[in-house]
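Can anyone check this?
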Amino acid sequence: MLAVLAVTTPIFLLIATGFLIVRRGVIKASEMPTLGRLVTSVALPALIFYSLSQRNFSEVINPVFLLAYGFGSLLLFVAVLWFCHNVRKQPLVTSVLNAMASSCCNSGFIGFPLVLALLGPITAVALALCMIIENVLIIPLGLALSEWSQHRNRPIRESVGKTMALLAKSPISLSIVAGLLASFLQLPIPAPVFKAVEMAAGASGAIALFTIGGKLAGLSLRGLGSSWWEIIIPTVGKLVLHPLIMILMLMILPPFDPQLQVAAVAMACSPMLSIYPILAAQYNYDGTAAATLLVATIVSFFTISLAFWLFDATHFVQQGASILPTLFLQP
């Protein structure tokens, strides 16, 4: 267990540091979105491009990983959407938001630093593969369904097209395309450019963790008028069901790189995407979404540590063993 805490504790200490810095007024809460944009517009795109461009194309594109992560996330999305709308009788738009929160990771701000501490350089490849699924499948599906639920007279393909056009312009999407292109064509990168990209990439992990901590400092559970069930469902979906479904996918599908198998499960263990309250704000659901993000991020320290203990991921990486024996406690 101490080996597991050695991986997870530094991650959450940096989050706590960001939280305290904002709470003590060293940095204003209103300045955190700027720091977040620095991560999503510069640091993470640099990291993704740097990693992808330095690997062979066959190493980068892993179809089994994409199938496991994509189908598992989609399966959870549909299940939570059905449960919230048909069992909990929530409006369609809030059901969609809960489904998206359950199946879309905070891969850039928490998932990446977490898996980086566990696996090292291959993490950026896993991050790019996860973001392909999130940016091409889960987020467009969630946003398109949310918009369609408010304008049902509009063809859903129009909502999907509008969402995809917006995501295609994002720096992260562009960095994935550029990195894959550089990898496929084996393009040489000039040394000064390479060094600048490397330096920007190296800053991404710590800045991301400070940012998520600072953002949490601005969230609160006070005045929450909604049922706690609206917080519990996406929290359990994200922190418990998503990793379990990912393990199930890895048991069913053909084996692939053991480190990427660990990365798929570890990414799924992270809480929901940090922009969840922002996406929910236009549907007047931001209060519940913010409370959900706060609760899920705090609880994730315990669920991630427990998952790594049960999963014994460190042993798995060192031994290069099959993923199945590591699901059980070692005697």
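Reply from J.R.: I decoded it. The two ends are 13 Å apart (CA to CA).
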